[in-house]
């Protein structure tokens, strides 16, 4: 796929829209009365924006890589999380080293967790030595679990069909898990 200036503009616009709409304070800390938690309603505009932005970033593929690599090191934790997740769906060897640095050094555990997940989605065992080393030093319980999952995944990478499913996704599919 040939990327265009229009693709790059769509990526930058999506990232700007996300930063304007997303409220990280709705997630943390636990004692925050405004906290809505992980599960959100399908009408939640922040969640719709986040998923819509992720869809645009994955659809833009190579056009998104430069901006995502920059966001991964320079922006707020919520934007770094989004960048780490999106890079797992966009094959780019240069970005893997950025993800490895984030998995090892980012101050935010959620960024580290998403970087580990993204590395294991595409690279499998290429980063097994890093995952084992981090598993020994990581203090965050959730990140440790994802390091274990990454090692268990072995050479099984996430198929390109997962990226296609995300690209085809719409906000009407937001509430895919229902009770009853």
- The ordered string of helix (H) and strand (E) elements is HHHHHHHHH
User: What value does the Rg take, in angstroms?
Assistant: 16 Å
Query: Structural class of the secondary structure composition?
Result: mainly alpha
- Distance between the terminal alpha carbons, to the nearest Å? 42 Å
Task: Name the beta content range.
Answer: under 5%
Count every helix, treating DSSP H or I runs of 4 or more residues as helices.
9
Structural shape: globular
Unreliable residue runs: none
What is the subunit arrangement here?
single chain
For the biggest sheet, the summary is: none
Helix content: 55-70%
Write the layout of secondary structure elements.
Layout: H1 5-21, H2 45-60, H3 62-74, H4 77-87, H5 93-105, H6 109-122, H7 128-137, H8 141-153, H9 160-168
Helix pairs in contact: 1-2, 2-4, 2-9, 3-4, 3-5, 4-6, 5-6, 6-8, 7-8
Question: Could you give a quick summary of the protein structure above?
Answer:
The chain is mainly α and 180 residues long. The protein has helices at 5-21, 45-60, 62-74, 77-87, 93-105, 109-122, 128-137, 141-153, 160-168.
């Amino acid at each position: 796929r040939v990327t265009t200036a229009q693709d790059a503009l769509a990526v930058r616009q999506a990232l700007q829209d996300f930063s304007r709409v997303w409220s990280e304070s709705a997630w943390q800390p636990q004692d925050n009365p405004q906290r809505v938690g992980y599960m959100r309603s399908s009408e939640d505009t922040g969640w719709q924006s986040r998923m819509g932005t992720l869809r645009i970033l994955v659809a833009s593929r190579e056009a998104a890589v430069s901006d995502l690599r920059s966001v991964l090191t320079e922006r707020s934790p919520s934007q770094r999380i989004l960048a780490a997740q999106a890079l797992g769906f966009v094959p780019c060897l240069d970005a893997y080293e950025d993800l490895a640095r984030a998995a090892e050094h980012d101050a935010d555990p959620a960024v580290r967790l998403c970087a580990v997940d993204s590395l294991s989605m595409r690279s499998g065992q290429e980063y097994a030595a890093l995952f084992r080393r981090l598993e020994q030093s990581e203090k965050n319980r959730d990140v440790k679990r994802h390091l274990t999952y990454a090692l268990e995944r072995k050479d099984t990478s996430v198929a390109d069909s997962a990226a296609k499913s995300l690209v085809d996704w719409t906000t009407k599919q937001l509430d895919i898990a229902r009770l009853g």
